C-alpha cells in the first residue's frame, strides 16, 4: 500500500475525518464560490447545519450543466493565479468541462493515483508504460504523476501509434501498463497477430479505465497480455483517474479513496439515497479539493457500493463496475439498454467475440437497433470462409443459425429485438488509443 495508515483507517476514524472535512468544505465553498452561496441559499440550506454524513442529503446536487453554465472558470474557489494546472474533459457537445488544480490538489491527485497503482500491483522501481492520452484529458498526466510519486519509472507514451507501442513494450520491458480497456484489447490482438506470446511479454499488471468494461474483456486482456488487470475509475470533475481502484488481490470492486472523495449512490429519478448494494447514480463530494471543490456532484455513472470488508485490509468502501453512464443509456422502443448488458450476453456465446457496435436508427416512428458483432477466429476457420456478406450468411446454415442464436439471446435477456449482423474477425471498430465508442445513435439530429 502507498499510504497504509490512511488506506486501512478504522471505519469510525474514517467517518470522523470525513465529517470534519465535510463541515470545512461546505463552509469553504459557501464563502468562496458565489455559485454555491446562491445554490445553498436558494435551497434554504444553512451551511452550519451540515455536520454529519446524515446531513448530506440536505445539500442540493451539482450537475454537469452547472459547470457548463459557468464555463470556463466560474466555479473555481481560488484566483486564477493560484491554479497550477487546468484540464478539460472532451464533452460530446459544445464546450468542454474545465477543471483546475492548485499545487496541493496536484499532490492529492498524485497520492490517490499512487494508491491506485499500488493497489493494482505496481511497486516502486517497476516501469509503467503509460498509454493514456496526454494533454487536456486527465488520464495521461494523472497516471504519470501518480507513478512518479510511487517511485516508478514512467514511459509517457500516450495513446496511438500502436506499432511503436508494441516495439517499446518489447524493448523496454515494463511490468505495468495503463490504458483504456479497449486499447489493451487492441494491443493484445496486435501482439497475437505478430506471433508474440504473452509469456514473452514483461507485463505483469494492467491498470485499465476511462470507459466501461466487463469480465469478458478482462479475461481477454489478462490472457492476451499475460497480466492481472484491475479497474481504475475517475472523472475530471472530481480529480481525474484514481478516485477508485480495484485491489489486485480480490478484484471485486474498486476501493474509493473516501478520505478525499465522499461517495453516495442515489436513485436516478428521485435523487433519494439508495440502500447499500442497490444500483443508482454515483454522486461525489470532494473533501479536500481547493481549486474546484464540488458538493454532491452527479456523475451520471451507474453502479452500487458495498461496505463489506475486503481481504486486502483496505477499509475504504468498494464500488461495483460501472454499468453505464446515464448519457450512454439507449432507449430502444422504450426499453433501457446499456452496451455492457449487450456485452454480457455476447460473453455467453463462444462463437462470437466481444468486438461489437450497436447502431440505432429511426425508421418512421420505430427505433431499429442493429448489433454488429464479430465471429470468433476459431468459428470462422471452422466454417472455412474468407469474408462475410449477407449472401454468404443466408447461404450457410451455420452462420444463419448463429445469427438467430445471438438475436434470441439478446431478446431473451434484454427484452429488445436487434437486427444482428455478423462480421468477420477484425471488422468491428477497434480502439486506436483512447476510448472506444461502441454505440452509434443515428436518431439524434
Ligand atoms: P470525458 O468526459 O472526456 O470522457 P473524463 O475523463 O472526465 O472525461 O470521463 C469520466 C467518465 O469516464 C466517468 O464519468 C465514467 O463515465 C467514465 N469512466 C472513467 N473510468 C471508468 C471506469 N473504470 N469504468 C467505467 N467508466 C469509467
Ligand atoms: K475518463
Ligand atoms: Zn481490497
Your description of this structure?
The chain folds into two domains: 1-325, ANL, N-terminal domain (Rossmann fold); 330-441, ANL, C-terminal domain (GMP Synthetase, Chain A, domain 3, 2-Layer Sandwich). Helix content is 33%, strand content 24%. It contains 13 helices and 21 strands. The strands form five sheets. A nine-stranded mixed sheet has the order 4-3-5-6-7-8-9-14-13. Strands 10-11-12-15 form a four-stranded antiparallel sheet. Strands 20-19-18-21 form a four-stranded mixed sheet.
How would you summarize this macromolecular structure in one to three sentences?
With 445 residues, the protein is an alpha/beta fold.
Features:
AMP-bd_C_sf, 2 domains, binds zinc ion, binds adenosine-5'-diphosphate, 21 strands, GMP Synthetase, Chain A, domain 3, 445 residues, AMP-dep_synth/lig_dom, binds potassium ion, alpha/beta, nine-stranded mixed beta sheet
Q: Kindly report the CATH topology of the largest domain.
A: Rossmann fold
Query: Which structural class do you get from the secondary structure elements?
Result: alpha/beta
Could you estimate the helical fraction of the residues in percent?
25-40%
CATH class of the largest domain: Alpha Beta
Number of helices: 13
Q: What is the CATH-assigned architecture of the largest domain?
A: 3-Layer(aba) Sandwich
Could you describe the largest sheet, including whether it forms a barrel? 9 strands, mixed
Alpha-carbon Rg, integer: 23 Å
Termini Cα gap: 49 Å
Low-confidence stretches: none
Spatially, the strands of the biggest sheet line up as 4-3-5-6-7-8-9-14-13
How many β-strand stretches?
21
Strand content: 15-25%
